[in-house]
Write a structure and sequence with these properties.
CATH topology of the largest domain: D-Amino Acid Oxidase, Chain A, domain 2
Number of helices: 10
Strand content: 15-25%
CATH class of the largest domain: Alpha Beta
Distance between the termini: 22 Å
Order of helices and strands: EHEEHEHHEHEHEEHEEEEEHEEEEHEEEH
Shape: globular
Radius of gyration: 21 Å
CATH superfamily of the largest domain: D-Amino Acid Oxidase, subunit A, domain 2
Number of domains: 2
Number of strands: 20
CATH architecture of the largest domain: 2-Layer Sandwich
Length: about 425
Amino acid sequence: MKVLVLGAGIIGTTSAYFLAKQGHDVTVIDRQDSVAMETSNSNAGQLSYAFSSPWAAPGLPLDLIKWTLTGRSPVVVNPIISFETTKFMYRMFKNCNPKSYELNKSRMLRVANYSQKCLLEIEKEIDVNYEQRKQGSLQLFWNLKDLEKAKKDTLILEKFNIKYELLDANACIKAEPGLQYIKNKLAGGLQFKNDFTGNCFIFANEIYKKCLRMGVKFEFNTHIESILLENNKVCAIKTNKGEISSDNYSVSLGSYSSKLLATIGIDIPVYPVKGYSITLPILSDKDAPQSTIMDDKNKIGITRLGDNVRVAGTAHLTDFNKELRAKSLRSLKNGLNNLFPMATSESSDVNFWTGFRPSTPDGTPIIGATPYSNLYLNTGHGTLGWTMSAGSGKLLASIISSTKPEISFDGIEMSRYNYSNKTALKYG
């Protein structure tokens, strides 16, 4: 069976890999000249299986007010808010209650835990080095109130048998010696021992090379112009290089998925939450992070990638504005220096990057069928595309191959949004 995958980021590339393993004739198209050139290129590098949580948490609306008043908000909203931004924020705030948070987190953990299993399967099949470290991750808290709040959140972790350990400040230093300079400022932390780190860009390219050996075709520099329909099915994808037809089609276009799907009447709430990262060479190994650190207060992640350290953060609601924001650069630098003041040099060259995280209001990705019988989705992973990529790819391959998936699809298909397919069928 022929399958055309739209998008060659980490989600599209892993989808192609698992589809090819199922015996399908797979083609991947992308507007860039190689794989993982957009959101997957310089992400946080965190494989945060245990730390898979929705942004839409019960305290978020109040936190936004506090952050705005202090002028140090990790969430930035443009003064002139577009209709799409307003719609996304409204839908997200509707999920900021304990019941929705627990439900959404459980769905995310289900996909994330499965994805870890699938990644380990890939590692057994492919001799791949992607600067991986398997030393866990550490979520830091600056006061006892936040630490106590985190303890309540561990109940759902226990439900999914996720290994964690509550640490005091001394134990945090033992886990990450580079934090010794700020010991007196820390209240404690939450350590997830089964989390990984790794370079998503390198991994995607390793999977790409494996896909080529398996016969997968990649058509780069190919711009999608429209989806062509006939008898409630997709009959072809119109591109700048002509029409490409297939038996089945999968949309893995990240933040650009919703725009394309809207042209055929499918409304999915995938919004481009803009994020930033900086990558710097390490000056002192003993003073640098050894794995992944998550600063709960300032909402930044600091990750060790080989001889470099990467800092990622900021949720900028600005639609598709690609401008690099100087204030975010300073914020990320300050975040690193506040935690690891001796890890890097001020004079070091900084790779400053921005990308769009394809975010849903509930935090859960959208994987599975659509109202069109041969069109499928694998998108909306937010900040966790790298974390969920392997599991999402294998799930997609299962549904297209009509084989029983290894985990439940409940709550991760587009059908959970009652507005998603109101107009779709009339386009068929």
